[in-house]
Amino acid sequence: MATTYVLLMRGINVGGRKMPMAQLRTLMEGLGHTDVRTYVQSGNAVFTTGSDEGAEALARELEDAIEGEFGYRTACLVLAGDYLRAVADACPFPAAELEGKQLHATFLGRQPEPERFAGIDAEALLPEEYRVGERVLYLYTPDGLGRSKLAEAVHRPAVLKGIDWTSRNWNTVTKLLDMAGA
What we know:
By secondary structure, the chain is α+β, with helices and mostly antiparallel strands. It has seven helices and eight strands. The chain has helices at residues 21-30, 55-70, 81-89, 122-125, 149-154, 157-160, 170-180, and strands spanning 3-9, 34-39, 44-49, 76-80, 103-108, 129-133, 136-140, 165-169.
């Protein structure tokens, strides 16, 4: 039975790390994945596969193939469509009432230990807020992520060292949900 997955990559088409989306689609199809679709130029893809390897094995396969094709390695987070739906459903902020740029999801390769967040002074960052979910951080940044002190605090190495991660604004999250049919 085919399963729908979402691929998220970090740092694509910035800083000299070029990856044409048409070439990524061809690469993924060459690995046997079907219904491969990309969204914007920043490393988002939705695909189906009959493989029963699971998300983590698919991520490693894609990392290896991307390195071979494009000459650099990038962390790939592969999320099952139903996981992405669960992330959206569990959002602790009123997503329907906010602009997409105000709400972000930082997807994590594994669940962080709670003590990683002990050094973050949440009150000093208000009105920005964050919540930890299941392999995701929800970030509410009223003025966007670009100048966010919260994003700087939660994305620093002391918090996320050793964890693959990438962030998407809520508009992208909902678009990928639609594309995945989740």
